[in-house]
Write a structure and sequence with these properties.
The chain has about 375 residues and is α+β, with helices and mostly antiparallel strands. It has three domains: about 35-90 and about 105-135, Helix Hairpins, CATH 1.10.287.90; about 145-270, Immunoglobulin-like (Sandwich), CATH 2.60.40; about 285-375, Cupredoxins -  blue copper proteins (Immunoglobulin-like), CATH 2.60.40. About 30% of the residues lie in helices and about 30% in strands. The chain is built from five helices and 20 strands. It has helices at about 10-30, 35-45, 55-90, 105-135, 260-270, and strands at about 145-150, 155-160, 165-170, 180-185, 190-195, 200-205, 210-215, 220-225, 235-240, 250-255, 285-290, 300-305, 310-315, 320-325, 325-330, 335-340, 345, 345-355, 360-365, 370-375. The strands form five sheets. The protein has a five-stranded mixed β-sheet. A hairpin with a 7-residue loop joins β19 (about 360-365) and β20 (about 370-375). About 25% of the residues are buried.
Length: about 375
Amino acid sequence: MSSSPRTRPTPGTVVTVSAVLLLIALAAAAVALGFDPLGGAQGFVTGLYPPVAVTEQGARIRDLYTIVFLVAAAIFLLVEGLIIWSVIRYRRKPGDDTLPAQTHGNNLAELVWTIVPSLIVVGLFVVSWQTLNAVDTAAADPETRIRAVAGQFQWQFDYLSDDGQTVLYTQSQAAGEGGGMAVPAGRTVQLTLTSQDVIHAFYVPQFLFKRDVVPGRVNQFDFKVNASDAGQTFRGQCAELCGTGHRIMLFEVHALSPADFDAWLDAKIAEANPTPPPPPSGEAGVTLEVSALNVAFEQASLTAPAGAPFQIVFDNQDSGVPHNVAIHKDLPTGEEVFKGEIFSGPDKRTYDVAPLEAGAYAFVCTVHPTMTGTLTVE
């Protein structure tokens, strides 16, 4: 009595089953270790998108990105799907010893892959053109005018009057406590960009926008931060390699409510134009000479008398770069006991410093904290 021969699985079937079992085991191990597949997938998809836009213009750019992304994803899925279908449908099977029938030319297919891509390109051109025109539109009468002045390696923000020329207030500290560019959320801000030396670039990731700052050329654009984002701070940076100090060319954008912005600007204007103090009487006391060049103090150490007022004559020799002299207790990061006016060079200022107790101090540039020296009061 004969029995029918056993059928053995083909090598391809064994490999496929082994791969499926391996994937199942890996997935089970990942879940057991606390990996969240849905969260990971969501993070992956989110990583394909730019940051959430905080301006009206940025929202338009993000909408354009979404359109282009969806079109690209649809084309990718279609092409990959057809490849996989072709591999499965026309794979070589046992007994296939001859080539299948070959198709040479197909008018319908050629029309489809010529007309459809052309329509896609034309459609993307139209929506891109509309977005570009909307983003580059400059208001004839913006509600707020600011000029960003870029220089190696610092930003300066001038708040302008309605004529676009008169400077109401200059913010020389681009980041940190008390620094940064303040803007009113919900109002149109027109930003003018100028450079004093080399090519820089103004870039705030959440604006979804970058514009070059070119010497000898004035660039300009409008933006409106969403009113719902008032109270937020956005980080910005120079996005064009501009020299050895490029990495420190950072700035902050503080979105304020319109009322808070108006109050802030009025206070800054009043602070920048105080009533001059009466001239000092008696002896002028000790005068210390301090100079700055190439973003560094030329004096490493100073000495002043304890318990007596003294003056600091500060010579800022860096053209277009804002500096000042501040005095901190013990270390450059210690308590600030004196802060001189920030101004751009080349220029000089004389600071009147109140009496200090004997001890060790540091003098620092508020704008460039790497500029330090030691002050001994004795």
